[in-house]
Give the backbone structure.
Amino acid sequence: MIIDTHGHVVAPAEVYSYQAQLVASRNNPDLGAPHIDDALLEQSVASHLETLRKVGTDIQFISPRPYHMMHSLQPYTVVQAWTRFVNDIIAQEVRLHPDVYRGVAALPESPTVAPSEWVSELERCVREYHFVGCLLNPDPTEAQGTPPGLGERYWYPVYEKLVELNVPALIHSASSASPRESYTLHFINEESIAILSLLESDVFRDFPDLKIVVAHSGGAIPYQMGRFRAWAYRRHLPETFDESLRHLYFDTCNYSKDSLELLIKTVGADRVLFGTENPGTGTVIDPATGRTFDDVKPMIDSIEWLSAADRQLIYEDNARKVYSRAFNK
Amino acid sequence: MIIDTHGHVVAPAEVYSYQAQLVASRNNPDLGAPHIDDALLEQSVASHLETLRKVGTDIQFISPRPYHMMHSLQPYTVVQAWTRFVNDIIAQEVRLHPDVYRGVAALPESPTVAPSEWVSELERCVREYHFVGCLLNPDPTEAQGTPPGLGERYWYPVYEKLVELNVPALIHSASSASPRESYTLHFINEESIAILSLLESDVFRDFPDLKIVVAHSGGAIPYQMGRFRAWAYRRHLPETFDESLRHLYFDTCNYSKDSLELLIKTVGADRVLFGTENPGTGTVIDPATGRTFDDVKPMIDSIEWLSAADRQLIYEDNARKVYSRAFNK
């Protein structure tokens, strides 16, 4: 079975015109979210389902488009209304295609509201809709401030809820308001910051059951291992950097075979989850192959030194372990 | 011949106590820089020269310790006095060991002063001291602001002077005032931002002779190639991402063999310059090898598929081409 742990929702224009309306009005007055017909959603996801069938994906976890989350927008009611609405749309699509989709929630991570306020949305999505995890944006300011690193106690209410519900978080930032850093590059830089902040903190001692997946193959870190190996020795940390990295999981949303080989070699096949991020940055044809960049499976299939057992871990077993609620209903 | 293009100055405590004095007094009153005896410098560099001899480095380019540059500190006179002083110390060490050292300048990159004001220090170091290049910090705010990306015209006075003097810039950020991002991680993230900003701009069309080296093997970018290949196609850029990356050079300050293989495969041996960043983050013993992490040469030597011609490029010829002033006196 092929489980794509990193997909995003495909939705009709009516969904995003509501977002534009929310931004324009700042949700004042609050006119309420529109009803989106099942038929409209079916029409919207049809070609995406066809893509999944073609590339051989059996199950895909879908979450809101991260760069659409607008966590930094004021007031909070805008973030709250949009997050709830888009999670509802995902629940609706999961209901229509329970054989293919599983839901992954976004949280209303406004930097002006305490994390303890965000987690009721996670609870709602997991308990009411059987969502299997959530996104966690380490930079709710969207490149406009200096939020606490993920190793800080600021984030503990989220970690407590994740452990209580037994669901993982996928580290994935939202947009970037900095003209020098596109959202797609901000994803990468925030992943590097998140990894270092978590691994230099007490988080995994305080939450030994916390499950964290880092998107996009871990930002820069597997490539910059030497630097952080040395850094850990300089700081006399209790674990080597290689040991500490094994507290985390990583997905394969990278689109380069050489880099995927480096990832798997560096962190181990038991720490890598198949993910494509489709639809996302890689959903464009690579003229060299005639396939989209985010059609990652043929790349993994072509890594000769991977054993059948390793592939089974990456394509299915690691996902079953980390997203255990996705398969025990 | 082995040319290490990325080394930093080794200096006695008297040099840094002057820095502390500058910071404490904010250079008001300006008491002038201390005189540092040749004998004191000789004592300070002795064990470093021994290290270079042991690891087999023939020539090393030395620049100020980037994390000591304090570009964001106010007022400007502090930055100006410190930059001038530390460049002078480098010139003094080069004078003492002209067979081993070449000087690489820092610029007084205060975010409150126009780049056109910074370049007289470059001119001074190249014309008076025969320095061979300079560092360029893409984030003079030291993680406290949003400076223009390196693709913006803001930086053009620096590029004009680099081309006029025929010296390259080594992209290397300074410290980081953000508690969530250490200076060593900030280096990596700023390199990724610098690469994208340069390659999505007109800089190499406007300055076809500009020579830019990106430190630490290019931040995250060679590892995240797939993402930016796709991104370039989405944006309909005139060059593929692989083509555009060849406007840049990269150094080997990475400390991981697997990653160095990925770098050389990705950008080409003709784009990679040997560098160790010694003394730097990697100057600590790796228990696995008994050598310091930044002893990079044995790693490169052990890459079996590299031809003798490739090694000659990486160890010597690329440096001679890019830092042409280092060898034509």
In short: Chain B touches chain A through 50 residues (CB under 8 Å). The CA atoms of residues 159 and 207 of chain B lie 7 Å apart. The domain at 3-327 of chain B is CATH 3.20.20.140 (TIM Barrel).
